[in-house]
Amino acid sequence: MKVFPAVDILGGNCVQLIQGKKDSATIYGDPLTFAQSWISKGAEAIHIVNLDGAFGSSEINAEKIKTVIKETGVEIQLGGGIRSLEDARSWLDTGIDRIIISTFAVNDPDCLTILSDEYGSNRIMAGVDARQGQIVVNGWERPAGDYLKWAELFIAKGAGSLLYTNVNVEGLCKGIEVEPVRLLTSRVTVPVIVAGGITNPSDVSTLRQCDAAGIVLGSGLYSGKITLEEALRASS
């Protein structure tokens, strides 16, 4: 199971939010410095979220993100504010390994087909952000229906993988909710990366047993509740 340390970027800084709320940001510093730090500790992949993009200003962090892509040379997946085919193509053309499309995929599922046809389905990940079993979009503000049905539609439309984020527990550092993950991984045939609530090695081991293909480590990692080394050991 692959471990993706998160490098969430807001206003040019690496930050962590609680429950996706902008005003909850804890600022950590330079995104490239943190990406390189995680790589030096064994990470082979990085998960980047362009938080300014998620809040409606997709260009603010573009140069910072391109620098991380260029300087690290590891597998990178990117999400946050990709709301058009033009946005998606511009990121894919940088050579990034994979983009994550969430709100745009709900509003226009055919975008997944177009992009997977052009770039290959392995580079197109659909974001399944869920609260109480409902997919939520527009910065996790609007519920849009059953997350399992959306996941199946995203795959039918061409997504080569899914990022499942449990909004109920995201950023709280109180552990995972297992059943929604188990339901999803048992229902789909593509790799599922899981985010939200991962706080200790036991959470990592449980997700591996649920057939998750990978995990994203955010607040638990940055707060020191789990180390990258512990997560890597529990993931193998």
TrEMBL record:
Keywords: Amino-acid biosynthesis, Cytoplasm, Histidine biosynthesis, Isomerase. It catalyses: 1-(5-phospho-beta-D-ribosyl)-5-[(5-phospho-beta-D-ribosylamino)methylideneamino]imidazole-4-carboxamide = 5-[(5-phospho-1-deoxy-D-ribulos-1-ylimino)methylamino]-1-(5-phospho-beta-D-ribosyl)imidazole-4-carboxamide. The lineage of its organism: Archaea, Methanobacteriati, Methanobacteriota, Stenosarchaea group, Methanomicrobia. Gene3D superfamilies: Aldolase class I. This is 1-(5-phosphoribosyl)-5-[(5-phosphoribosylamino)methylideneamino] imidazole-4-carboxamide isomerase. It is found in: Cytoplasm. The active site is at 8 (proton acceptor), 129 (proton donor). It comes from Methanospirillum lacunae. Pathway: Amino-acid biosynthesis; L-histidine biosynthesis; L-histidine from 5-phospho-alpha-D-ribose 1-diphosphate: step 4/9.
